[in-house]
Amino acid sequence: MLYDKIKEYGPNTFVKCEEGAAPLDQNIERVLIPKAGIDQKVKELALAISKDYAGKNLLMAGILKGAMIFMADLVRAATIGVQFDFMAVSSYGSSSQSSGVVRIIKDLDQNIQGRHVLLVEDVVDTGLTLNYLLEILKAREPASVAICALLDKPSRRVVDVPVDYNGFVIPDEFVVGYGLDYNEQYRNLPDVCVLKPAAYATAK
Ligand code: PRP
Question: How many domains does the chain have?
């Protein structure tokens, strides 16, 4: 049915279905979290953060590129004034086997000494990226550092990281959309979707 619609509108097209937007192409298996569910969760997270940081001059630090869409929605749902900044990182070694050491491609623009910092991530998987970033940022002597992640895959965890604000706990499936990619594709899907294993099995 969905794929009939893709045929009708052409590939690389969003098609509406009951749950939200349908696949951009036939590599999408299903919608895991529809946009309406994400919107509701983002609102809840933003309210909790706004309450906890009231009067504290919060700096939200988004980790590019995956967190961009989540971050953009989160800051706009906040009911307190916040500042924001971005970091871009890349894992050393092969992408499928993270070493836990990340290279900073773009650092924060702001000095965080004495600041309250909230790291914003799209997904916590092994935890290695955030564990490393926490160490680096704590050495800069902020007043506090906390973590907000839209998605959490606890079954993949290698190091324990304290996720202070978590949106959804999800199973160990390859998810794309709402900022998350496969080979830089699908980031602009409005829903979080599961990629068909066949789509990436041959690429590994
Ligand atoms: C993803 C995600 C986190 C990291 C989580 O980034 O955005 O930064 O992986 O994985 P970990 O918990 O196993 O360390 P990715 O390297 O895919 O880059 P992207 O954000 O540009 O898509």
Answer: 1
Of the chain, the percentage scoring pLDDT greater than 90 comes to 74
Residue 93 is part of which domain span? 58-174
Rounded to a whole number of angstroms, the distance between the first and last alpha carbons of the chain is: 30
Q: How far is the CA of 198 from the centre of ligand 1 (A)?
A: 21
Q: Is the CB of 124 under 6 A from ligand 1?
A: yes
Note the pLDDT of residue 158.
Answer: 94
**Is 137 touching ligand 1 by the criterion CB < 6 Å?**
no
- Whole-model pTM: value is 0.88
- CATH number of domain containing 114: 3.40.50.2020
User: If you average pLDDT over every residue of the chain, what do you get?
Assistant: 88
> Does residue 41 lie in a domain region?
no
Classify residue 65: in a domain, yes or no: yes
Inside any domain, residue 107? yes
For ligand 1, atom 6, which residue shows the shortest CA distance?
Answer: 66
Ligand 1, pocket-test mutation among 70, 101, 125, 161, most atoms within 8 A of CB = 125
**Is there an atom of ligand 1 within 6 Å of 152 CB?**
no
Instruction: Give DSSP secondary structure letters for 55-108.
Output: TS-EEEEEEETTTHHHHHHHHHH-SS--EEEEEEEEESS-TTS--S-EEEEE--
Query: What type of residue is 188?
Result: N
Residue 127: inside a domain, yes or no? Answer: yes
